[in-house]
Each structure stands twice: as C-alpha cells, then as structure tokens.
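Think of the structure tokens as a kind of shorthand, similar to the way a musician reads notation: each symbol stands for something richer, in this case the local conformation of the backbone. In the example below we present two proteins back to back. Begin with the first one, reading the sequence and then the tokens, and try to describe in your own words what changes along the chain.
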Amino acid sequence: MKKALVVGAISPEKIATSIAHHQVKTNIGGHAIFLGQVRADEIEEKTVKAIDYTAYEEMAEKEFHEIREAAFEKYDLTCLHIYHSLGVVKAGEICLFVFTSSKHRAMAFDACRFITEEIKAKVPVFGKEIFEDDSHQWKKNS
C-alpha cells in the first residue's frame, strides 16, 4: 500500500520531481494536477497563519488506498499519486497533491476531481487553524 501522508508541506521540488519522472512514460497523453494550498483566511478578525494537520493515520491511509483503487477501477489511468500533509503547513504552502495520468486528458481531469472530492468527503484528516496571535480552532470544511 502506497503511503499518502507526509510530514510537513509538500515542496515545489517534490511536485516538479514527480512530473519529471513521468517524461519516460510515453503512453501518457495527459496529466491533471490538483494542489491544495493553505489560505490566510480571516476569521472573526483574525488571520490564519498555518494549519496543523492530524489524522487517524491507519484509517486515513486505508481510505487513501480505497480511493486510489476506486479511481483505477472507474477511470482508465496510467498513473496516480496522492500526498497529504501532516503537521504544520504555513499559509501559502501546499498541503494536498493529487496527480493523475492517462492516455487522454479528459480521463485525467475527471479522475483528479473525483479523487479530490473523495478525499474531502472520506479521509479522516483534521486541520487546526493557527492564527497570527497563536490562538487556534479546528477548521470547518466547506
């Protein structure tokens, strides 16, 4: 089972390296990428400076695996990567990286959206918003 949870922000270098590794796969015609980024939301006159992500790791990894398997069954994918952050991720940094590849772009787009929505709906990852004054609250998903 491929591990999806990573400690800290997902670096631009990790994203670039993942893309670069696919250049040798000449049966791919399209890629789709979703990058989830921490926003500096203003809530009750306080600005979010980071989110501290926690998870029921074993259950979360199982859900990521099931979502991955469902995507491969539903879509004709060549490749699929999912990474989600654990720990503190600052505003502006990447916390979710979904990367799908297929022979045709439409399949990659559709699969990427499906996976992203399934993650938000099913994976037990929780975010605690940390404000500039160091107060915090549990994030409410929209």
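Once you have a description of the first chain, move to the second and do the same.
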Amino acid sequence: MTYEAKNFESLLGTKGLSDQLLKNHFTLYQGYVTNTNKVADALAAMAKDGKTATSEYAELKRRFGWEFNGMRLHEYYFENIVKDGKTIDKNTKLYKKIVSEFGSYEGWEKDFRATGAMRGIGWVILYYDALEGKLFNTWINEHDIGHLCGALPLIVMDVFEHAYMIDYGLKKGDYIEAFMKAIDWTVEPEVDSWIQ
C-alpha cells in the first residue's frame, strides 16, 4: 500500500499562520509521506530477499515509526485547524468530559497551552483513554516516542520550530495563541460516541 499526501491547501489564509509558513509545513509533511513509502518499500524488498536479520533491516524498522508518525501527526495537526476556527459545542460529550476532567474548558486550555509552552520541540496532544474514560494533555518529544498506548489523539499541536519560527521567531506563545484560535472544534458524532 502506498500512502498519498493529503491536500491541505484549503488552510491557506488561516489567520495567524502565514501562507509561507503553511506551504513550508506542507512540504515537510509531504517529505514524511514520501519517506514512509520509501522505508516501507525497502523493508518489503529486504524481507523478500531474506535480509531481516541484518542491522540495516533493524534500523529501517526503527525508522519506519519516525516517518509514519511524522506523516500521521501532521495530518492530525492540519485536520485540527480551519481558517476561522470553530468553537466547541457545549452540548457534546467531549466538552462535558473536558469540564469534568479539568474543572472547566478554560482549565483544560490553560493546561494545554502550558504544555505547549514547555521548553523543547515536539507535539502536544489531547489524548482520550477510552479504556478508563480519561483525557490527558501529553507532551511528545519525538514522533515515535512517548505516545499513550491505545489512547486516541483528539487535538494535536505541532511545537517543533518549523511550525512557528517563520512567523513568530522565538515567540512560541504567540504561535500557540494563533493555533488555539484556528482549532476546528467540530466534534464528529463518532468521536462523541467514544466518550464515556
């Protein structure tokens, strides 16, 4: 199976995220898609040739998680935003769960922003653990390390420098503000059905 890059050009014109920034980010994302396919093809060829016991195969197996998650996390990130942002419907199970877990929507947002403002590069993800019915704002350093097993990513914010430096330099907080205003809080019925 070959992965194809999704087209996110509809995000051009998003307030707070310049077209130059977004186009550069789209190009980076497309690189992850390309590399996911290259690594998958190389692994398949090595397996066919009986080279699964080689160090090269082992390193490519490890690299696959980095490339795949880089691809998928960027897709979640771009799918989380919309030009004018959309506020969350207070009647959804997700909104009510956020309030019950964090005390208020504002409490959740404060924690999410604080997680994003931490020093370092990575991702901030609002995860839902369906087994226990809990929400977590989680910091992920690398694409392939630190994810919560079995948890569902609901909101994904990229806090690698490429996501904001062109527009904001070192002012990550200003970028976080722009991202928060661009979130598409349209809660799909299937997502709301997951929430306990």
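Compare your description with these statements about the second chain. Helices lie at 19-48, 55-79, 93-102, 105-117, 165-168, 172-182, 189-194.
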